């Protein structure tokens, strides 16, 4: 730690446990970052309450208002808000929609997915749907992936992954809980690597520079 602090924008759609984990890591001095803005795609997302409690500016870009619109107005609106802040990294934290970031954020948008990409990912695979699909398929291993975002769902270059063993008596809830425990370690780790300038994108491969 102790590097220059980077500015984060966090995009979310739900409960905001991922946001809370980042807030807590920053509070404990484990992350060289500050969150300058939180944008939610729902006005009733509990993540907004968490952000306000932490004194972070919030905005809502309600996805339901853009249903059926495929001209990119939803992303445009988010980009408009982002442009008002000095942002180093955009962090998707349970954000359940496609977001096309402006060109200037290329290589500066991260997402976390609660499975091992390229399995159990893509459109429709979010939250508990992912864990249900893993159990339905009978996979023995699931996990967590942190990746950079490009213009296709869950496809961008992978930064870090951790495996989580599936137990015979797992339910979607028990599996989700063990996976989330790993999410809480992996996302701050990836953000800190970015803050230290140690992530080098080489096509699809991300190389981690040593200190
Ligand atoms: C997290 O488990 C995150 O990995 C997942 O949604 C949850 C958000 O929880 N993201 C996806 O499924 C993205 N495809 P939260 O709203 O409590 O942070």
Structure summary:
The protein has 211 residues and is α/β, with parallel strands linked by helices.
SS content category: alpha/beta
Sum up the overall morphology in one term.
Answer: globular
Ligands (ions, cofactors included):
glycinamide ribonucleotide
Helix content: 25-40%
The CATH homologous superfamily name of the largest domain equals Formyl transferase, N-terminal domain
Query: If you consult CATH, what is the topology of the largest domain?
Result: Rossmann fold
Outline the structure in words.
This protein is 30% helix and 24% strand. It starts with 5 loop residues before the first strand and ends with a strand. It contains 5 helices and 9 strands, in the order βαβαβαββαββαββ. It folds into 2 domains: 1-106, Rossmann fold; 112-201, Rossmann fold. The mean pLDDT is 96. Helix 1 (17-27) links the parallel strand 1 and strand 2 (33-40). Helix 1 (17-27) packs across helix 5 (172-195) and helix 4 crosses helix 5. The strands form 2 sheets. It has a 7-stranded mixed beta sheet with strand order 3-2-1-4-5-6-7, with helices on both faces. The protein has a two-stranded antiparallel sheet with strand order 8-9. It is an alpha/beta fold and 211 residues long. The chain has helices at 17-27, 46-53, 73-82, 128-137, 172-195, and strands at 6-12, 33-40, 58-60, 89-92, 109-113, 141-148, 158-165, 199-202, 205-208.
């Amino acid at each position: 730690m102790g590097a220059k602090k980077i500015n984060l924008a966090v995009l979310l759609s739900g409960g905001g446990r991922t946001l809370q984990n980042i807030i807590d890591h920053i509070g404990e001095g484990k992350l060289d970052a500050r969150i300058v803005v939180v944008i939610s795609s729902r006005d009733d997302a509990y993540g907004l309450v968490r952000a306000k409690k932490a004194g972070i500016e919030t905005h809502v870009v309600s996805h339901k208002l853009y249903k059926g619109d495929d001209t990119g107005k939803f992303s445009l609106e988010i980009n408009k808000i982002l442009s008002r802040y000095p942002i180093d990294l955009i962090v998707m934290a349970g954000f359940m929609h496609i977001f096309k970031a402006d060109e200037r954020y290329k290589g500066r948008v991260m997402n976390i997915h609660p499975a091992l990409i390229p399995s159990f990912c893509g459109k429709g695979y979010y939250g508990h749907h992912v864990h249900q699909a893993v159990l339905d398929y009978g996979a023995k291993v699931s996990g967590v992936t942190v990746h950079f975002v490009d213009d296709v769902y869950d496809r961008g270059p992978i930064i870090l992954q951790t495996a989580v063993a599936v137990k015979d008596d797992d339910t979607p809830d028990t599996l989700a809980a063990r996976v989330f425990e790993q999410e809480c370690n992996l996302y701050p780790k990836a953000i800190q690597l970015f803050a230290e300038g140690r992530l080098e994108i080489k096509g699809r491969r991300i190389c981690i520079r040593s200190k």
